[in-house]
Amino acid sequence: MSKLILWLSVIWLPFLMVYLLINETKFKKNIVLGVTLPQEARKDADVLKEIASFKKNAWTMIGILTAMAVLMYFFSDNNAFMTMWMTWLVFSIILPYVPYFISNTRLKTLKNEKGWVQEKRTIRVDTSVLKSQKWLSPWLFVPPVILCLVPLIFDRNMAVLYIIFALMCAGFWFGYRWLYRNKAEMVDENAGLTEVLTRIRRYNWGKMWLLISYGMAAYAIAACMSYRSVLVSVLVTVGITAVICFYAFRLEMKTRRLQEKLTADSGGDWYVDDDDHWIGGVFYYNPDDSRFIINQRIGLNSSVNLAHPGGKIMTVLLVLMLLGMPLLGGFLDIGMTKEITLTMDDNKVVCTSGMGNYSVSREDISEVRVLEELPSDLRRRFGTATDTLLEGSYASEEIGTARLNLDPRQGPFLLIRTADGDVYLFGTRDGSQVKEVASALKNQD
Amino acid sequence: MILTFDFSSDVPLYQQLRNQIVIGIAEGKLIPGEKLPTIRALADESGINMMTVSKAYQILKQEGYIVTDRRKGAVVAGRPAVSVSEETLRDLRLKISELRLAGMKKEDILTMIETMYEEGKK
Questions:
Q1: Sign of the CA dihedral running B7, B13, B19, B23
Q2: Domain, as residue range, for B115
Q3: Which residue from A297, A348, A358, B46 has the least number of CB within 10 angstroms?
Q4: pLDDT (tens digit per residue) in A20-31
Q5: Measured between CB atoms, does B51 come within 8 Å of chain A?
Q6: ipTM score of complex
Q7: A347 or A139: which leads in pLDDT
Q8: Contact assessment for residue A354 and residue A338, using Cβ atoms and an 8 Å cutoff
Q9: How far apart are the first and last CA of chain A?
Q10: Is A169:A210 a contact under the CB 8 Å cutoff?
Q11: Looking at CA atoms only, how far is residue B110 from chain A in angstroms?
């Protein structure tokens, strides 16, 4: 089941990536496939040919990635799946950019050959647009923070989760405010157009962050209301994620459509051409720009300036993260399938799995029980939850908040309460050691 | 008003900014009392360091082209600088010499200056 959920949760990724890249074949702000071209280029046969070539290559890439995903699902065992899944995820993020880079390079060459190059290392600033910018009030982010904390009235077991959600909502205001480069969307000398484009971007940028904040509040409320059923909880979480993704995608596409429509007549005598600072049309490298955060030229997103020290650090971290994902998959797989041991060691109960080690001193134990089945309303506060391993902090009506380290498929389970009120629930892969440790603890009483 | 910054030029960026604002005031593109962008907004917009923008504004203030107000920020001065500095006159002498050496006649230079002056009055 986990395998299918993991598979379904990402299979759409290459389609989304390619869809967004194909959308860049429509001229927006005089840019097509990351290259700024004049109005006359929109009907140029060579440009149109390159655009068609990119579309073809992008669809081929989708075919390759989908075939890889199908093979990965049907021809891999559970152990290899996690590593392959993570590797495929990295491929799905990187590979769609290969045809994009190729077409971008070809179009830049074409641009130079046809003399469509604007002045270099020059920027223009329209001072009239800089005076009319206002930020959303931080108070708009307060209701979702409060909504995240409301479940605390009904459910204290998951307090940490609700507080984290509330802090994230508050953090979204900072994201809205500081991950946006305060820059006018100048396309040409038309000040009115610059102002409208800037307002559209800023308005939708604010809307996006508000959407995420209220989505987070919905997560908190849904977690509180649906914890009694794992299935309902999963469905509600997936549903909310789908709604957030759908609206975020819609905002992005709406912004792109307006950018396309409003700049349809641009690209005359003078227009902004920033191509020299965009490597492959994707990475921004501009030593003349002292800013770290920059706005992507198309759509809503922000990016970083690779010439800035912060940008360099962030890029190195991102590359390491991407390269580390397949390794992480392998480590997680090993961690989740490793044998779980439960032993009495130096007057301590020790439970070890691939994801966590727990040790409870004998003298601290006040109650020992053997449960044949796990509580039905068990829910994770934080930690690992897979078909083969539950590790971390969990909560249920029956046992309260407890530390788990067990294989949920195989009972019995050892419940330990300490004099301090801490609760532990341990279980092994075959259930054999549970009864031995339980009887050893009871005999010592 | 559109400001242009040329990063490949030998002229420092703060000087480019100062010069363009002076020309903007002379040509009437910036009128007395008009608010200039804040240092942060202009730095954000252009990618130029805030210190560079601040330096240009300080020079403009010293020269009397702008005034700064705690609430309004930088505003174009109601009365432009009244005195012409020695440096400006030196620059003018240098430019006239360059034009003479380039082969331009006195009448042509005067016509050109007159045209530019009238453009600034519009």
A1: positive
A2: 86-121
A3: A348
A4: 999 999 999 999
A5: no
A6: 0.76
A7: A139
A8: yes
A9: 42
A10: no
A11: 32
